[in-house]
Structure formats: structure tokens, C-alpha cells
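stage 2 :: seqdesign
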């Protein structure tokens, strides 16, 4: 991995900032931004329809690059405007009835939890959260017992929560879902682009991701993976449009075969193209190399902060490039002040975004640093030294 070249590809680094908010919204590489500007200028000259036609082959590369990234076929991929939209499209294709059970985890993303609660309020669906073991790993025995007791319609797991460095064991859950033939939805919003994500190994029916975080794409982009099994069983969004089906008779339609049936007809092709460039960029470097590098950076940063006396809140056997921490007395203000003064980019998560996790941890919030492969060990040391002075 040529870090110098990778850093030269980021106009946003020219002012010397240290950017450690890749779990929020990362810095786009130059080819991503330039491809969008170029596409918009073409639209400016000839209109969006003409330019989409002229660039049809190029635009198809989005599906190929995404498929390459997560190890599936391009026919399994739908473009989405966000991870949340992809998630909603997937959920809407499942016909929930009163009493149906969704099993999820205590660490699933806030919006997923709110969506499940909405299904509970509207359709009387039951939400059950599998337990965590004392080491914060998923309790798979509990999961099997819950499956036998409740026969769930869906199991939904967030691969990497937004608010802790945990990596949940989605592969092990996938094996269990396969054994009991249960629909399996994985939120890979924080893992795609950060580490290797392989849908064959995870063995899921749906997987969702966003463009702007570790993928380094533009805002307003994301994707949904839909398995062949689910496509063959004619799952489709509740509110389908002409992107999803052929209007075959006055009162009938025929579903299109590929996962594109989960898209809406109208979308920003400039954004899709920018996202495609980001996917190409990651694929060219290689996700194994990116994962390996990220592990090195995040372990060093976590270790440094711990050694300085900060309270680290990442709990689990397998941790990600998200480092969450606070001062020993729980203070976040001083950390934020010092980081801002030093031109370090970070984010803060409060209890309302991680209600169950932070209640269990008995904390009100954390500072989150999320390094990525364009960061250097020198930057990690610099930030560690800046923070060490506070304590
Ligand atoms: C784990 C996780 N899932 C889903 C989302 C939602 O992504 P989007 O805002 O693209 O819908 C986020 C965003 O922070 C996230 O961290």
C-alpha cells in the first residue's frame, strides 16, 4: 500500500488536519470527487437522460465493483441512497404479521432498533434481543434457544456498531440462520470498506452498507445485497416502482430478476458514479491489505490511550477501527476541546444513540476516533501525545 500516493489523492489533507472520523463521513479521494463533477458538467450540457444513456456501461460498473468487494454477483446488488434506505427496502420485502418475531442484538444500530419498534407499534411484531456473554461476544447458545422457542421470522445483526469498537460474529450467526432456515439481515455499514466483508462467508440474505464512511464515497449513496435465494423467492419491496417490475397487465406486474428491483427508478447518477470510483479505489488497494493496516493503527491508538489512563469502552474479542473512550471521570469536554484545538477530526456519541450499550456500561457518552488506511502511525502517535497531556 503506497500511503504517500494515497494521501496525495486527498485534497482535504492539504491543511495538515488529522482526520479520524471515518466512521462518520470520510474524506473522498480525488477521482471520486472529479468523476462526479465531470458527470454533472455533462448533465449540465445535455440533460440527465442523454448522459445516462451515453454512460450506461460505465454506470453498470457500480454493480460489478460492489459485487467484487463483497464476493457475490452484480445481480445481487441494488444501489441505495443510504444504509438506512437499503435496510428499509429489505425489511419492507418481508411480510410481517402480528406475533412475528425479530431477533436482534443489544448492540444493533439506533435506527434499526427504532424501525423494529415501529414494526412492533404498527404490526405487533415482537422484538427479542439475544444476550451477550460476559466478554461481550454474542451468546450463540442463547440464540439457538430463542430460535427453538420463538421460531423467528428474521434475525438482524449489526456487524460493527456505530458506538463501540466491537465486531459482532456475523459468520457464526449466519451458520445458525442457515441451520434453521431463517431470514438473515446484516447491517455492514461500518465494516464495508474498513475490513473484508464476504457475503458467502457470512451467509446472509440481505446486507446493507453506506458510501460515505469507510468506503470513502459521497453522501447519499449506499447499497443493498440480496441473496439469490431471496430473489428466487420473489421478495421485493412493499412499495415497488417501475425499476422493480414490468407492468404486464392493467392489474398485474412481473418482477425483474435482479436485486435492482430493490431500487427506485430515480437516483443521482453522479453520486452513483462517485461511489463506483470509491469502490474501485478500495478494490484496487485490496480489502485484505486495508484490514491489516487498519488493525495495526487502531490497536496502537487503543493501547496508547489505555496506557495514558483513558477509559476505553471497546469490549469484545475482536475489535475494529472504531476506538471509543472517555476520561477516567467520564468527562468528554476536555478531550473535545484539545482535539479541536489541534485540528483533529473526531466524533462524539451520546447515550440516546446507544441506549442499551451505554446503559449497561453506565456512561453518558464517548469520544470516537476512527482511523483508516490513509492515516499514519505518526498521526496516531501525535494524537496520543496530544491527549496524554490532559490526564
Ligand atoms: C452501524 C450503522 N448502521 C447504519 C447506519 C446508517 O447509515 P446511513 O446514515 O447511511 O443510513 C450507521 C450510520 O452511522 C451505522 O453506524
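stage 2 :: out
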Amino acid at each position: 500500500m503506497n500511503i504517500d500516493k494515497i494521501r496525495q489523492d486527498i485534497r482535504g489533507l492539504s491543511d495538515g488536519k488529522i482526520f479520524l472520523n471515518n466512521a462518520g463521513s470520510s474524506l473522498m479521494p480525488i477521482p471520486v470527487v472529479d468523476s462526479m463533477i465531470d458527470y454533472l458538467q455533462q448533465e449540465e450540457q445535455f440533460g440527465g437522460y442523454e448522459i445516462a444513456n451515453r454512460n450506461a456501461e460505465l454506470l453498470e460498473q457500480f454493480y460489478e465493483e460492489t459485487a467484487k468487494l463483497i464476493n457475490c454477483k452484480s445481480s445481487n446488488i441494488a444501489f441505495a441512497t443510504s444504509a438506512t434506505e437499503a435496510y428499509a427496502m429489505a425489511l419492507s420485502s418481508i411480510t410481517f404479521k402480528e406475533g412475528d418475531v425479530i431477533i436482534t442484538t443489544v448492540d444493533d444500530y439506533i435506527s434499526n432498533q427504532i424501525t423494529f419498534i415501529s414494526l412492533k407499534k404498527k404490526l405487533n411484531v415482537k422484538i427479542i434481543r439475544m444476550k451477550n456473554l460476559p466478554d461481550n461476544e454474542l451468546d450463540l447458545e442463547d440464540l439457538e434457544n430463542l430460535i427453538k422457542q420463538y421460531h423467528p421470522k428474521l434475525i438482524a445483526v449489526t456487524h460493527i456498531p456505530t458506538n463501540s469498537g466491537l465486531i459482532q460474529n456475523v459468520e457464526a450467526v449466519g451458520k445458525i440462520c442457515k441451520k434453521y432456515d431463517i431470514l438473515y439481515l446484516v447491517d455492514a455499514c461500518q465494516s464495508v470498506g474498513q475490513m473484508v466483508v464476504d457475503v458467502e462467508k457470512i451467509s446472509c440474505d440481505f446486507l446493507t452498507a453506506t458510501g460515505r464512511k469507510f468506503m470513502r464515497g459521497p453522501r447519499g449513496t449506499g447499497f443493498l445485497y440480496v441473496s439469490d435465494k431471496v430473489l428466487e423467492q420473489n421478495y421485493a419491496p412493499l412499495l415497488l416502482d417501475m425499476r422493480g417490475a414490468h407492468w404486464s397487465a392493467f392489474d398485474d406486474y412481473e418482477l425483474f430478476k435482479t436485486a435492482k428491483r430493490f431500487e427506485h427508478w430515480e437516483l443521482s447518477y453522479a453520486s452513483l458514479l462517485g461511489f463506483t470510483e470509491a469502490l474501485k479505489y478500495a478494490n484496487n488497494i485490496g480489502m485484505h491489505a486495508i484490514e491489516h493496516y487498519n488493525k495495526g493503527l487502531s490497536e496502537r491508538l487503543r493501547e496508547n490511550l489505555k496506557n495514558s489512563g483513558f477509559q476505553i469502552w471497546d469490549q469484545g474479542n475482536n475489535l475494529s477501527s472504531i476506538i471509543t473512550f472517555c476520561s477516567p471521570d467520564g468527562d468528554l469536554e476536555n478531550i473535545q476541546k484539545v482535539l479541536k484545538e489541534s485540528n483533529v477530526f473526531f466524533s462524539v456519541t451520546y447515550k440516546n444513540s446507544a441506549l442499551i450499550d451505554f446503559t449497561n456500561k453506565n456512561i453518558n457518552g464517548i469520544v470516537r476516533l476512527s482511523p483508516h488506511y490513509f492515516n499514519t502511525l505518526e498521526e496516531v502517535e501525535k494524537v496520543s501525545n496530544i491527549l496524554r497531556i490532559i490526564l
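stage 3 :: structure notes
- The CA atoms of residues 25 and 99 lie 38 Å apart.
- The domain at 30-284 is CATH 3.40.640.10 (Aspartate Aminotransferase; domain 2).
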